[in-house]
Amino acid sequence: MITTKFCYINCRFLTAVLLFLILSSGWASAQNMVPLNRPTYYPRAIRLQHSGAANGRLLASFDSGRTGNIYESLDNGQTWQAVAEVTETTPPGNCCSGLYEVPRQLGNTAAGTLFWSTSVGTDKGGRGPCSIRIYRSQDQGRTWSYFSTPVSGFIGLWEPEFAVDKQGRLVVYYSSEERKANGYNQMLAHKVSLDGGLTWGEEVLDVGMNDGKRRPGMPLVKQLPNGSFVMTYEICGTGCDTYIRTSPDGTNWGDPADEGTRVESTAGHHFEHAPTLAWAPVPGKKDGQLLVIGQMLLNNADNTVAPDNGKVYMVNTTNGIGPWTEVPAPVPVPDAKDNPCPNYSSQLLPSADGLTVLEVALRMTENGCRAFYSSAPLSPPTPQKAPTSKKARKSK
């Protein structure tokens, strides 16, 4: 008994020391390219948790032309293999896809059902009829079929993401340009489904400023262990800085005209463009920690590009309140810039035990934009004192 306790304590101590030494040396495993040999954009990665024998398997999706490319990993992200392609033929094009595993039975939609959702009718030219469409897989991503269209419009609808709210209802969040006539250059909104995603209710505005200029976009939502929800997003038009806000239930996000709180690090930096959000468990800490990454890292003082641009993500252990700590990214992209490729909408996927984190990030190569992946140890930062003022920091 004494020997077992002694070994347990010392093993945990040695593990902590090893993690510290590894992190201090800037270690990350070798970076590998996803074996998708054509232009690759908008990575998404999830770990199956509600699919029975397939639990623990990693799935990823990538946009490539009109196709959503579905890949899987059976070894926690060390290698990836193609399993399916989802082709959306609505002209003129599509983008900004999302990948989601339904966590529980919702109507006739079973736990473990996968959604691949995409913005269709969009391209770089003039705008026209557009929508967000959902495809469904009931065999861990092997086969896909059209399921539903939560929202349609005529200007621009982008970046669908999903969550289940506190009432157990499926929610789709998205960016919309459909209220430009009312002064909303772009806004964040959501709809609720009572039957597992087949039909959808009325649109609800979550974040929007009707000044004709600011453009909230790219919402990501996670539920925390305390039951509350957090959302990260960018606000472009006066910069594209990363913001965060909270909700008690996943559908009520406060005053839509309030920008929220800018995500800022203890080193005096903030992210600009295409932020994504992840939650990771921390052994012995029920709240875990939040991870945020953005395309570019800027100095708070003057909005110039910071030296560690493209090389870090940020961690917060106080449910998104207060300052964040910078951590070396597993896939550094030092040439990150305002462009659809380098470090755009990178994905962070913590391991189930919270000890490592996988990153999937885009990098420009001689053959065009490609996705790279790597893992590194994940260790909670030293807790930082939250600021006394909760007033939002304004972007430039």
What labels would you give this structure?
396 residues; mainly beta; 4-stranded antiparallel sheet; 1 helix; 26 strands; 6% helix; globular; disordered N terminus; disordered C terminus
Provide the spatial order of strands within the biggest beta sheet.
Answer: 1-26-25-24
Query: Which segments are poorly predicted (pLDDT under 50) over 5 or more consecutive residues?
Result: 1-28, 386-396
Note the gap between the termini: 60 Å
Number of strands: 26
> What characteristic shape results from the CA principal axes?
globular
The largest pleated sheet is described as:
4 strands, antiparallel
Structural category is mainly beta
Number of helices: 1
Order of helices and strands: HEEEEEEEEEEEEEEEEEEEEEEEEEE
- Percent helix, as a range, is under 10%
Mean pLDDT over all positions: 89
As a percent range, the share of strand residues is: 35-45%
Radius of gyration: 20 Å
TL;DR of this structure?
Helix content is 6%, strand content 43%. By secondary structure, it is mostly beta strands.
Write structural notes for this entry.
This protein is mainly beta. Helices cover 6% and strands 43% of the residues. The protein has one helix and 26 strands. The protein has one helix spanning 2-24, and strands at residues 32-33, 41-47, 58-64, 67-73, 81-87, 94-101, 114-120, 130-137, 145-153, 157-164, 170-176, 187-193, 204-207, 215-223, 229-236, 241-247, 261-262, 269-272, 276-282, 285-293, 296-299, 312-316, 325-328, 347-350, 356-365, 368-377. The strands form seven sheets. It has a four-stranded antiparallel sheet, with helices on one face. The longest helix is centred in the N-terminal third of the chain and has 23 residues, at 2-24. The termini are far apart. Residues 1-28 and 386-396 have low confidence and may be disordered.
